[in-house]
Design brief:
Elements (H helix, E strand, L loop, with lengths): L6 E2 L6 E2 L3 E3 L4 H10 L5 E4 L14 E4 L6 E6 L2 E7 L4 H9 L3 E2 L11 H6 L16 E7 L6 E6 L2 H8 L7 E8 L1 E2 L2 E9 L2 H7 L7 E4 L6 E8 L9 H27 L2 H15 L6 E4 H4 L10 E8 H19 L7 H9 L3 H4 L12 E6 L16 E8 L5 H18 L2 E2 L9 H7 L3 H11 L8 H7 L2
Parallel strand pairs: 3-5, 4-5
Antiparallel strand pairs: 1-2, 6-7, 7-11, 8-12, 9-10, 9-11, 13-15, 13-16, 14-15, 14-18, 17-19, 17-20, 18-19
């Protein structure tokens, strides 16, 4: 056991001190920890790149970073990888690439651990979430009476569906097995569009694309992406990566921080997004690069806070129009809402809460849209329906965050009422258990599985108890 100290997450919106902190080096040590604290409360910490209260505890906090192994195996001519819970996604990708392999899906950030990423439904664009692909999970948990700790392997059925995206409620993930696919290359091109309908048409030929609604110009920027037939870098890919890192990952974010955190100028934010940001992106620069280079960003370089809402494909066009109107109203209280937005607000009886965001916040980051195929899980955000989902991200770099919290709360509540939007478990999470019960049709099955592997509720904290009614 290491001396417990104050823990703070990446976004600095969580700060707590556990009573005990452990970093076990093997399974025997992990089981001993569970036995010692089987009448207490236990949570697991990963890379701390989450804004919800999932890791908070006044009890035991376990760090699984010693479990960072990667084991590649082949059976029946199919290749898979067994990866330790504490292994970071970037290490997994690098180790697989040495063998000419990768995993079927990857999130935007490679700094996360594989267990943390899958436990919260982390996703990329154009495929299922990472959680969907898990073939088996090894778990440290308790027997049906809650008296003894044990290691179990979950390989099928509703238990596997629950373990794929578990929020840490079943036990401590030790390792998991994922399928491997041959390493592939991605062709990418930047395209600006006037409407979301134009962007969705592009998706037919670029199924891996993600796109952005640019604040204050209110145009769309699409990163058209598709799997390349060529397995080599093209289009000056190395220069493209350097340019993107220096100009976008660093330069754009530094200027944005200056405008919103130091100068605090709404007018300059408007000018920045209307005139400068479009000039930073080279239209139609066609580049081909390896998947693990093309599909990730250095989004962890600057501290921020994020809300991410998921809507099904049939709602995404209407949701985008609503978001545009609401962000304009939050930026300028004199903005006249469109007839369609007024109709939606009236239908959902949201006029009273709308007044709380009038002219309160100038949004200062592109709103990212990513498509996720339906997941075979119980409570990942893309579970439970046959339609594709779109994850819509709202990010702030401003501190203090009271005005953003007001806007994000309104967006979360209004988008639930209008579009049945789900909020990402790992992002800032204002939704209540009442809403969660309505949004996840298999939530009762998930609760039953949790009770089977953790009958005494050891692996729960106030966040999961509140949001999941556990």
């Amino acid at each position: 056991m290491e001396q417990a100290k104050i823990v703070q997450n990446f976004g600095r919106n969580l700060r707590f001190k556990p009573s005990h902190f452990y970093s076990p080096i093997n399974k025997d040590e992990l089981i001993d920890i569970l036995e010692k604290h089987k009448r207490g409360k236990i949570r697991v910490v990963a890379s701390k790149h989450s804004w919800s209260g999932l890791i908070e505890t006044e009890g035991v906090l376990i760090d699984m970073s010693h479990f960072d192994y990667v084991k590649i195996q082949e059976k029946n001519h199919e290749t898979s990888v067994t990866v330790g819970a504490g292994c970071k996604v970037k290490k997994l990708l690098a180790d697989l690439n040495q063998k000419g392999l990768t995993i079927p899906s990857v999130g935007l950030i490679a700094q996360q651990t594989i267990a943390g990423a899958t436990a919260t439904g982390t996703h990329g664009s154009g495929k299922h979430s990472l959680s969907h692909y898990i073939e088996s999970v090894q778990l440290a948990c308790f027997d049906e009476n809650g008296k003894s700790a044990k290691i179990v392997n979950i390989t099928e059925g509703v238990a596997l569906q629950a373990a794929r995206c578990s929020l840490g409620c079943l036990g401590v993930v030790v390792e998991m097995t994922l399928p491997c696919i041959p390493q592939y290359f991605v062709q990418e091109k930047a395209t600006f569009c006037e409407t979301i309908e134009e962007v969705l048409i592009l998706e037919k030929k670029a199924p891996l694309q993600q796109f952005y609604l640019m604040p204050h110009s209110w145009k769309f920027f699409a990163q058209e992406r598709l799997v390349s037939l060529e397995l080599r870098r093209r289009g000056f890919a190395a220069i493209y990566r350097i340019y993107w890192f220096l100009v976008i990952d660093l330069g754009m974010h530094l200027v944005m921080k200056l405008l919103v955190s130091i100068l605090r100028s709404r007018r300059l934010v408007h000018i920045f997004f209307r005139s400068i940001v479009p000039a930073l992106v080279f239209h139609n620069w066609l580049v081909t690069d390896r998947s693990d280079r093309a599909l990730v960003m250095k989004h962890e370089l600057f501290r921020h806070l994020e809300l991410e809402a998921f809507v099904v494909r049939s709602h995404v066009v209407e949701a985008a129009s609503f978001i545009k109107d609401i962000l304009q109203y939050a930026d300028d209280g004199n903005h006249q809402l469109s007839d369609s937005t007024n109709e939606l607000i009236q239908k959902a009886q949201l006029f009273d809460s709308l007044s709380s965001i009038k002219g309160c916040f100038t949004h200062h980051y592109p709103i990212c849209f990513r498509r996720i195929m339906p997941d075979d899980t119980l409570i990942s955000m893309a579970s439970g329906v046959s339609e594709d989902w779109y994850a819509i991200s709202f990010i702030t770099y401003v501190e203090p965050r009271d005005e953003f919290y007001a806007l994000a709360t309104f967006l979360a509540n209004s988008m639930f009422e209008l579009f049945q939007a789900r909020i990402h478990w790992g992002k800032w999470f204002p939704q209540t258990s009442k809403l969660v019960n309505q949004l996840y049709p298999k939530i009762d099955t998930f609760r039953d599985v949790c009770s089977r592997y953790d009958p005494n509720g050891v692996f729960r904290n106030s966040f999961v108890e509140d949001k999941l009614d556990l």
